[in-house]
Each structure stands twice: as structure tokens, then as C-alpha cells.
Amino acid sequence: PWCGVGCNSVEKKIYVHLNYTFPCVRLLNATHQIGCQSSLSGNVGVLHELESEENLDWVLTSGPNPPYMVILESRLFTRSIMMKLKEGSGRVAGVVVVAPNTNPPEGFSPHTACPNDNSGVYTENYDPTLAHCNATVWNPLGNGLAYEEFDFPIFSVKDDNDTRVIRQCYQDHNRRVNGSNPQFPLCAMQLRSSMSAVTNTATCKRRNDINFSLTPDRVCDELGDFNIWASSRPMNTTTKGHKEFESVVIAAARMDSRSFFFDIAPGAESTASGIVTLLAAAHALRRATQEAPPNRTILYTFFQGETFDYIGSSRMVYDMENNQFPLDLDNIHSVLEVSQVGLHSDSKLWLHSDPVSRKNSSVKEEVEKLVNGLKSASAGLNVSVDEPDVSQPLPPSSFQRFLLARPIPGVVIGNYRSSFTNRYYESMYDNAEYLNVSYPENMTSEEQLEHFPETVKVYEPTTLVQYMLANMTGSVVNVTQEDCQKQREDKDDDQSKHLYTYMWVQGAAPPNSTEREGFCVRSTVHRSIAVSPAFELHEYTTSNYSTWTESVWKPITGRIFLVASHDLEMLTLGVGITVLLTSLVLTYVISSKADILFSSGREPTSATY
């Protein structure tokens, strides 16, 4: 115990640990790997704060103490600078990006200019003129950084106490004064983000299957989660495949987002705006569809994993084609997808459709009905709705995976005409600030986070959407907690579980009481698996489905400390080795002469005490 306390005390005197870091991690697909990684023990480098792109020469060429751990302001986190650092990676130990408190006005998107290229409907086989965004570049600000491979760690840190400590250490020990090089000791940083998977998905899955122990270590996991869906009227979910006399309109949105850094992808406009809009629509239509059921069933669907080559939507289509879903594609009448719909002061909504499938007269007719219906519904609202050129292709959307299977009528609603208006698509800046979300006055950023209900902070997005959709489309039933949790109305009910899902809600505590009054919500909300069919088929090199996996990693840490000069380290090592060798020689000599050095006269055997 005393050693643990002592060692801990010494460790604290040597290192300052970083508390709020967000790393870039490694992802893999059928052909290659992207992302970042460190060595197994972590990368160590002398801190250097980059002031401008011209200042790169110090890091890449002239600095006398490489490798360097480069500190970047967010304005310098550009493709140009990062690619130069990548090319000179022999002198770069890692990069730390300081996240700003406000969004960069010029915009920033580390995604590609043509999101989900090669995984949608627009291929050379479908229409060569529309493939690879030949007709429309949807994300013109996309610089593709999130799809590059870096052989050093890249972390994002908040502009807070950690950043101030890092900068102070740099200013005190590493900053050049009057043009002279800094003197030792220098401030250094260690970043550790060691990734287990390498090369591509096929390689990492093969390594997963090699079991040398009873508890084998996985090196990668396939990306995936669950899709959430609910029908406007009950349907039997136990029987799979085609439903006679059932015609369904899919109302869809996506649930996922990403950025360059792991676990910091708010997706306010790219994702949340669609989720909120579709949830609001489902809530508004609940009573109307119950009192006057429409001719067609509405299937409110929230897809997961769409950022990574349409994982959720491709899995639902696959399940429908293989009788693993309560409906099949013959039951699908049309698709209405809610894309990015965050309205700014000068924006309007655009109704996108597919020009190729519209060559089919029946599809064209249904699409025109959808478009005209949406225009008519918006006439009394303070929202402008229009249709782009009908020759323009669909934007990146889940609907494209349904079109890959067959020509289905559909419309994608977005706040953009021919390119995204979202200046921060798939970045850490696509946040509440960008949508002008307002909070009570005089709140700090930490207090703004605390302003959200506990539900939002505790549940993952998929579970949160599932519960919210159940609350907005379901109804409270007089059922005991036991029966509710056993998916039944009473002990004799064995049919309701095929039609409904029952969720027990804790409820709120009434005034002057601490006991919550729970109740049961019955809804048609279900979830289905959102893992790419490639992993069910074991086709890890296919181009037909998403093959994205995420590397397993060791503990991710960052810390700063002072380092001595290389000469001093070598001198210390030399002295240590000399002392060691000397002690070994002395020990040998003393041991070999012990009888002489430590001998004493023997006492008589008759001696008594």
C-alpha cells in the first residue's frame, strides 16, 4: 500500500493528465482503412503550437527536437495542413486540435464532396451521367479528411483548463525567444490511441475468427445498431413477408451522424432536424389516423448507420427481400424521406425525386401526387416549398437503397436545392449553435448541457427515439406492471404481443409525494437489426453492401510532462550502466572473498551461555 501511494504521488508530480479528449479512431471497409492510431505505448513528442501554415517548416524541417506534437487552432485544421503533416509524419508524433467555443464562419466538413458514393442507386449501370456526383456535388465544402489514413494520433481538446495548461507549458518551456531555440527541459506530450485492426475488414474479421485462447480478443466490430419503426395501425409482426391487402407509405429519417473525432458528432441539422420533424409529424397524425384511418398504412421509420453506406436502409430492404421483415417490397407503395430540414432565415424546402424511375409513367404519376400534396399542405403555412429541376438526381438518402431494389415512387425533403446548405455537414460544428437553439440567458456551455432532461443525457439516440416514438404514437392502457413487462393485457392474453409493444413508464411523482406513478404505454413501435447484410452473408469484400467495421482499441489517454535533452538522457543512462556494472563487479569480488573478509575464530564446542 505504501508503494502505491508513493508511486501515485511521484506520478502526479511528473505528469499532467488530459481529462476531456476526443480521439480520431480507425475504421475499415472492404478495401482499406481510415482514421488514426498511435503506437502500442503511445506517441511522444515535443509540443509545438502552429501559428500559421508558413510555420510548418519548423515541424517538418528545421526544428532541432523532433518528433513534434503539433497544437492546432481549429482554423488551421485544414486539408492542406493535415496532408503536409501526414507526408512528413517521420517528424510528427501527433496532432492536438483545439475545439473553439464558436463555429468557424467559413464552414467546415471533413466528409467527402459526394457522400456515400458507390453505395447508392447512381452507378454506371443505373445512369452513368449521374454516377459519382457528375451532375450535382452535394457537399461542396467536403474536404475528405475523415476518410484519410494517418499513422499518428489526432485528438481534439476543449478550449478550457486542459488547453490552458498545455499552452502554458509550451509558453514556459518551448517557445522561441528572440529567435533562439528553446533550452531543455522541454514540454512534451504523450497521446495513446493504439488500434488493434489493420488493413481492411476481411483481414480483421479473419483475425477475429482465430481463437488461441478460451477468451479470444476481438480486433474489430462491425458497425451497426437497430432501426426503429412504427405503423399507424397494428400489424402482425410475428409473421414475416408479404401482407395481403396492405399498402404502406414509408416516412423515413436517419438517426446517425459522425465527425472526424469519435463521440463528438452532434448532427444537429444533418440528423436531428429530420428526427424531430418526423417525430412531430407522427405525433400530429396519431389522432387523425385513429379517427379516420387512411387507405394506406404509414410506416414511421428511423434508419441507423446511414452515414456508412446506408447500413440501416440496406438491411431493411434485404430483410424485405428475404421474408425476414413483417412486410415485403410489394407492400411498399412509396417513400417520403425527411432529410436536412433545419430552416434558416433565407431557406426553403425542396422536394427531390429520381429522374430515372420517373421515366416509368406509373411512378411519375405517384411522384407528382406526392409533390402536389406536399405543396398543397404547405400553402397555409409560413414555409416555402418548391421542386428542383426534374433532371437532377436524388441527394444522398436512404430512399436510394429502395430504388436499387425496384422503381418505387418517392420524395426526399430537404432545405437545399442542388447542394447542401449545411456548412458543417458531418462535423463537430453541426451543433445547436448552428440551428440557433436558444437557452435561458446567462447560461454557460456546461449549464446548457445540464438544461436538458436526464432522459436525453442517459439514453443512447436509438433507445431515446424508440421511447419518444412510443410516447407520441402510443396510448396508455390500464395494465399492471407485470403484465406490461410480459407484453400482454392480462394473464390470458397471448395475442397482443404479435401486434403491439408494451413499455412500462415510471411516470412522475405527484405533488407532495416522492413515489412515482407508473403506467403502461401500448404502441406499434418495434426495432429491427441494422447491421449490414455483408456480415450475415460473410461477404467482407462485397461492393453491394456496407462493409464498415471499427477497430477495437486500447485505453485512450493523453498527458504532458517535461523531458530532458537527449545528451543528458544518454549521460544519465551511461552513468547508470557504469554504476550497475561497478556494483556487479564489487558484488562478485566480495562474494568470492567472503570467507576471508568475514571470517572469525570458532568458539569451543563446550562453550555455554
TrEMBL record:
Protein name from the UniProt record: Nicastrin
Nicastrin small lobe domain ranges (all copies): 23-197
Source organism (scientific name): Gouania willdenowi (Blunt-snouted clingfish)
Any one Gene Ontology cellular component term annotated for this protein: plasma membrane
Keywords on record: Glycoprotein, Membrane, Notch signaling pathway, Signal, Transmembrane, Transmembrane helix
Major localisation: membrane
Stored CDD domains: M28_Nicastrin
Keyword Hydrolase: no
Pfam families given in the database record: Ncstrn_small, Nicastrin
Transmembrane segment boundaries: 570-590
An annotated GO BP: protein processing
Membrane topology: Single-pass type I membrane protein
Record localization: Membrane
